[in-house]
Amino acid sequence: MNAFRAVAVAMLLLGMQGGGVPAVAAPANAVDKPVRIDIRNFAFAPATLTVPAGTRVVWTNRDDEPHLITSAGKQFDASRALDTGDTYAVTFAKPGTYAYYCSIHPMMVGTIIVQ
Ligand SMILES: [Cu+2]
Question: Distances in Å between the alpha carbon of 34 and those of 3, 55, 72, 113?
Fold first, then answer.
């Protein structure tokens, strides 16, 4: 083991014992599995979804009617009108509360809580 490597290992061990800042940062995009929301019977299922930051959320329209996902606060781009079986995906990078609705059927509402 050369000197540089010994110092690196020592720093790693100290970092692990420090308890504050982790010695090795997690990758920026630690969430690789999309989370799905079904649109069924004129409702979002689940209506409220809590996910870690970086999660890709995919809506799928299971109804025979078109639905159009729209952010209540214009926090993300609206989908096009989704026909049966169509999907729409948004990656939520920043923590926050994202309310959305169907602009064709505004009584259809949902919330995504990003932690
Ligand atoms: Cu709709």
Answer: 43, 6, 22, 15
pTM of the model: 0.74
pLDDT in tens, 48-83: 999 999 999 999 999 999 999 999 999 999 999 999
For residue 82, report the distance from its CA to the centre of ligand 1, in Å.
Answer: 9
Residues 38 and 22 in one domain: no
Task: Specify whether 22 is located in the same domain as 39.
Answer: no
The alpha carbon of 74 and the centre of ligand 1 are apart by a number of angstroms equal to 17
Do 13 and 57 lie in one domain? The reply is no
What is the spatial order of strands in the sheet that 43-45 belongs to?
A: 43-45, 35-40, 55-61, 87-92
Distance from the CA of 66 to the center of ligand 1, in angstroms?
Answer: 6
CA of 113 to the centre of ligand 1 (A): 21
- Going from the Cα of 55 to the center of ligand 1, the distance in angstroms, rounded, reads 23
CATH code for position 48: 2.60.40.420
User: Where do we find the tokens 């540089």?
Assistant: 4
